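OP here, attaching both records as promised.
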Amino acid sequence: MKRSKVAILTLATVMTIIAVLAGVNLTRHYIKFFKRAINQQAATIGQLNDKVAAIGARLPPIDAQNAQSATLAQFAESIAITNARLAAIDAKIVGQPLDMGESDYRTSPAPVLKSPLPFGGADPRSYKVRTQCDLSDPKRTIVLLALGQSNAANYTGAMVQSTYGGAVMNYYQGRCYVAADPLLGADGNSGSLWTELANRLISTGQADRVMIVPLAVGGSSMIHWQPGGDLYQELGRLIDALEADHISITDTVWVQGEAERYSDSPFYEHAEKYASALKSIIALTRKYGISRFYVSMTSSCSNQAYPSKPTRSIREAQMSVLSTKDQIFSGPDIDGINEYADRFDACHLTLEGASKAIVQLMASIRGAALHESAKR
């Protein structure tokens, strides 16, 4: 019995020694394998580095690169950021199409007015700074009513805030807030034309104060703005509210027309019908007094990457209502702002495109003011 136990222990010891030796040999094998793999990888990396260096030697210095390449790189980055923003906006909009592509009033319900889309479901006013609705010097104050679809709302590529504190006001539901994009009263969750416009009107001495009163919904067709439409009715309520608060509109800007670029729009190729509806809107804004009205030339979504011809009938309708005698002036030519860097998705304005529109609009406002003073 003792002999058998000794034999078993001896056999177990021998097997253990064999296993250890086998493990050592296996470990040595894996070490050699990994060393070969590491050496091969190092050689590959060295070859790649040599290739990169050779390519780099053939490239011009960075400061000699074509400026357009830098612009396109920035544009690509802007597209990525904007796409993320648009995805977030689209996820929160209920029955509210963007005014681009095939999603428009033909296949979607009437837009639901939101002012603007609340962050995390919070009251949109909760992140705004209240200020007085200061109209103490009406001759040096511009009350700007901004109407239309997305390029009149909060869809531009950069968010701006007042650089003059409460001198740039955002009127909303009877109260004023220090203007900061996105503005209350329009949908969208990005930047607008109006805050930067107000900053520049003050900085150039054209006004001491600017009150911005937006009413704009992305993708909204003239169907919604014509008499009987939901936005026409909303505009009527806004006009009455301003009158009740003793606020007189001085300038109104209309930026709408892209939604009519489809052949089955009831206003497509019907200039007289569009013009008639626009005249009704102008008349409604003047219910309690004459104000200067600016009609933007906008009828398509286009840039150099995605060229599209303006809708001729819509532009003709927009131009047909212009009358300096009646204080209806041309606003910015949005259709003409269509270089690569002007629109991040062929439709909505980037910071650069918005800046061009603002410059044109400032010139129109200046010209209208000079025209009015010349009549006195």
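Record two, same layout:
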Amino acid sequence: MTGIDEARIRQSQSADNHHMSIDAPFSDDDDNSMSDMLSSGDDSRTDRGVDFESMSDDLRAVLQNTLKDREIKIVTECFGIGCQEKGLEEIEQRWVLPVNVFARFVRRLSRRFVRAAMHAYS
């Protein structure tokens, strides 16, 4: 009827079908279980914070090696590195430059910083 050998069907039906808890260890001498390996769905890796902190430290080092103190303050606020990200108008209020000159200045700084960061990570 199905074209499958009857012995093969019986073999499949008699296969070990016992259920196992996802919390059960993989083996007697192992503490890991399937629940340890499954994602929780919210991407809450424990090393995510460490990755973020490490990248922030690396970016600060690139800033220190590439830009002057005043430029570092501007770029960190533009990109929100170690602080809340701010818009050009908000940042420009602290500096005595016309808005159009300030915007060009920030674009040049950003390009320098991005090139230096890409070089540092390559």
